[in-house]
Amino acid sequence: MKPLRFALAQMNPTVGDYSANTRKIISWIAAAEKKKADIIIFPELALTGYPMWDLANKKRFIEESLRHLARIVESTRGKKIAVVLGFVDKSAKSERSRNSLAWIERGKIRFKYVKRLLPTYDVFLEDIFFEPGQETVVIPWKGRRVGVTICEDIWDKRYKEKPLAELRRKKADMVLNISASPYYRGVAEVRDRLIKRHAIHYNFPICYVNQIGGQDDLIFDGRSLFVDQHGRVLFRAPAFAENLFYFDWKPSLKSPYEVAMPAAAGSPREVYEALVLGVRDYCLKNGFKKVVLGLSGGIDSALVAALAVDALGPKAVLGVTMPSHFSSRGSWEDSEELARRLKIECRVHPIKRKFEFMVKAYRGHKKKEGKSVPEPGQVTLAMENLQARLRGLELMYLSNDECRLLLTTGNKSELATGYCTLYGDMAGGLAVIGDVYKTDVYRLAWYRNSQGEVIPESILTKAPSAELRPNQKDEDSLPPYEVLDEILYFYIEKNLSREDIVKKMKGRASAALIQTVIHKVDHNEYKRRQTPPILRVTEKAWFGRRMPITNRFES
Amino acid sequence: MKPLRFALAQMNPTVGDYSANTRKIISWIAAAEKKKADIIIFPELALTGYPMWDLANKKRFIEESLRHLARIVESTRGKKIAVVLGFVDKSAKSERSRNSLAWIERGKIRFKYVKRLLPTYDVFLEDIFFEPGQETVVIPWKGRRVGVTICEDIWDKRYKEKPLAELRRKKADMVLNISASPYYRGVAEVRDRLIKRHAIHYNFPICYVNQIGGQDDLIFDGRSLFVDQHGRVLFRAPAFAENLFYFDWKPSLKSPYEVAMPAAAGSPREVYEALVLGVRDYCLKNGFKKVVLGLSGGIDSALVAALAVDALGPKAVLGVTMPSHFSSRGSWEDSEELARRLKIECRVHPIKRKFEFMVKAYRGHKKKEGKSVPEPGQVTLAMENLQARLRGLELMYLSNDECRLLLTTGNKSELATGYCTLYGDMAGGLAVIGDVYKTDVYRLAWYRNSQGEVIPESILTKAPSAELRPNQKDEDSLPPYEVLDEILYFYIEKNLSREDIVKKMKGRASAALIQTVIHKVDHNEYKRRQTPPILRVTEKAWFGRRMPITNRFES
Fold first, then answer.
1. Quick one: pLDDT at residue A255?
2. Pairing mode, if any, of strands A82-89 and A98-105?
3. Of A156, A488, A510, B456, which is least packed with CB atoms within 10 Å of its CB?
4. B-contacting residues in A 125-144 (Cβ below 8 Å)
5. Are the beta carbons of A508 and A480 closer than 8 angstroms?
6. Please, which residues 335-374 of chain B have a Cβ atom closer than 8 Å to chain A?
7. In this prediction, does ipTM exceed 0.90?
8. A511 and chain B: CB distance < 8 Å anywhere?
9. Quick check: A420 pLDDT over 80?
10. Phi, psi for B270 (deg, rounded to 5)
11. CATH assignment of A4-251, given 3.40.50.300, 3.60.110.10, 1.10.220.10, 2.40.100.20?
């Protein structure tokens, strides 16, 4: 067998940006042809971007997909390279469209294939938008028999149909998979295992090409692969990097090597890099060059500031510290030190007088109406929330005034338990670490500091506090975060029952505490309904979790 | 054939409230037995409430369903009545559960049936949570052969499988359908046509029992039916009413009559009643006895105030009018007049001085930082939003302080075009008329006034204005609402392309205007991601529409 040169187009498309996506596709085809690649493989729905949800059922969206596909096909005229590309096709049968693949050669579409297994669970809803394909396709090419698949087609465990088994029966001796498989911590190992197992079981090599980039809540990590029929990884593209990668496969060579999984897989570094990509793409794809965020002196906002700087550069980031009556002096100084180290602009806008003015005005109204008012000095829940909301108000003012996207800094532990204020610290356009547990926030901060110490020691070591009343500490209202996060992990990510969590915690938390935490999670659904997109980094993120607000069940 | 007495249990369950739902089910069974009903039929998932989303896959949720089912079964011991009840069953095969029906007689479950067609589109996502059934069931009972179906099983157009055809082949001579079919304007006619057509086509009577009540965004309208094999409606339960209805069917009688569809079907009255139910159930099921809302002097807040009064009574409703520099004198007086007529408490909390204080503070910060500030008297976008947000801030303060649910008053036309402020007028726990177009807001207001004039004439006739800058009118930024709403209807509800809308509008709107409106809808998705639940009254509500925020496609 002759060696084959694969061009793996690990591309970052933008949903609906047909012109830019097409331009990139055409130029990458030309580049790969010049480098004498035999085939260039683009990810699932590379032409349209993914996920596009309801856009997939718009007549014009489908028409534009086909129009741009035709331009790409035209561009291959006179070229030798084969092109494999994901696009949206129309359906003759229904209003749904087809998640499709085109094999293009010398100015012609040699064949089209329609995705057969449509994931409909968690963050996927493809059954709603797409009509499934009915047939597998094997094509003779360069002396081989190549089978094609799209993403879920190889994640076949929950389906009766097994496209890979059908390809084997049709005597495929090599399989391509084009994917748009989103990131979560741990996905790399799961994917590796799956693809290796399939390659060995069916005895054919699998070339896997995955999308990279951020799309709203989802981050795609790339990490395209070439796995031989012995389950050995011969090529690995890096995570979170957009590039056209080349791999020369010499089928006759008894592969003497395997490319190991990078040590960073599943590490804080990986999660950090995912979030950087998520922030960058959300901002740039939505036309925001600058961001603003509140700096509380705590670890959450410090981490988000560092992520924003790494995503957009220090000039793009504005930090605002808004001390109140209950802010420690340290909070403010620590924020300024953080800003100095990150080289970002930091403004100090105290809310003390604003808070006093508002409380006085609200008291005034109540008194005039003959209603009872709280004792002077008493801090009610409404007043706690008012402080958070005055900060949200000011940040949104700056956001509107300076065209800066407001980054939300709350973490997953807070969002889970409702330890956050609607329209206050929950305000913003993107919740950067809303899927990161508090204990992981520390891990990410430590990792970032290991690359250059930007987060002051004092921020890393102080006890977490909302600072909305005198001497308030998070642990007055919540269990220690190591305990809380473990309970949350079992409840949210593992969907375990109260009883099973009691067993798993082996006495580290009482049954009553576990019950209280579960209650908090269930009864704060109304807050989470109003969050901005939350970048997903865990297997069960908010985005893929669907719970009623009106719910009397005590889990 | 002997006459049969049907008890149609048009029930309003609460999601997850097993104790209350079970209590009601047991007491209704006892009542129907006493009235000598032959059979009592409860809606789909009456035991658990519907939709319960991810709760359906919690081990304890399923266990509790079975435990309470056993109690209900036990309660039928010694009774003659047959009971048909929807509940969640466990699955041996997967983590998903089963949307099931039990036929219970004399302390025993005679058989269970599993829903076969699982709707997964629009507001339905059943494939995610449930495992489909594989078999139809026909049971001999009182000399008849009764087939059972659950909701979507009879909405079979988009599926290859046709459960009703299978029941016909199995010689069923009567079919029951238990449903949890949510309301939208027009659904009654669609359901009537479907059930009549099936009854005639398959030549069997169909008894249809539907849930009523509000569950987050969804409102269930009931309107249970008995349709004979000639497609004649022999019995109709009213819309939006929870009750146990009896119908005596005399099969031998050549039905001389048909119960006509009430004149109100699809009318403003119907939509109004749906919204009243939606508000009442959202508040009461979530433990709120009191609400608060901002009264702007405009038609939207006036309508929401009237709806709240009809849902919860005047004592439960607090209106707050918060005039600014740009509020007309009329706005304030009209709100007070509205409150007088509705007999609700109205407070006047001007935001003028609060606004001045904040703007001065924000200017002060900017000046100190050496940044440029707007000319005195200039009203920037940030200042417009600030006014709306100061109102949101004050309403949320009252909400926290007095345990009142804040009702959001924005309409569908505003939400569609982004003519609304995040954390300002969009703040709240329930968006009451967020699925009602502005032109329909007037229709609902006129209907309400026809039942007793509560909304002052001046509110009905003034030109809509946000009153956030001098002499501002909605029509400065938006086309006239009759035109806008028609474009929105074609775009959102009918999913038509730009070109098709141009044709439909027949010159009533230019292509450029249509393009502008579509652009506004697409590019305000980020605002709609952060709304509270929006009561659904149209076929394509926000809740069933899934669009990416990051999206460069120009529809």
1. 63
2. antiparallel
3. A510
4. 125, 127-128
5. no
6. 347, 349, 353-354, 357-358, 361-362, 365, 369
7. yes
8. no
9. yes
10. -60, -45
11. 3.60.110.10
